[in-house]
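Review this today:
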Amino acid sequence: MLVVIANDLPPAVRGRMKLWFIEPRPNVFVSGIKDATAQTVVDYLCRHCPPESAVMIIKSISTTPGYSITTIGPSKKQQIQISGLQLIVETLKSF
């Protein structure tokens, strides 16, 4: 499975993504494509998306932890790695 979340994709890239993915919300793409095809899509996005697109790609993999996260450009959420796990930092708001 491959999930792509972006702030803004170039029109040509967004049109191409609609060939392989469903778009349940604007700039959120989900597909169950095979691993080899998923890597081709990730490579395509890395080549054609400028940093302003702020893309986060979550790809399922066969090894632990079962997913990998790739980002293009800045992200509002910080990503860290602990003991080989890629994690997204969530800040808690106090009441």
Remarks:
- The chain has a mean pLDDT of 89.
- The chain has one domain: 2-88.
- The helical segments are 11-20, 35-48.
- DSSP finds two helices and seven strands in the chain.
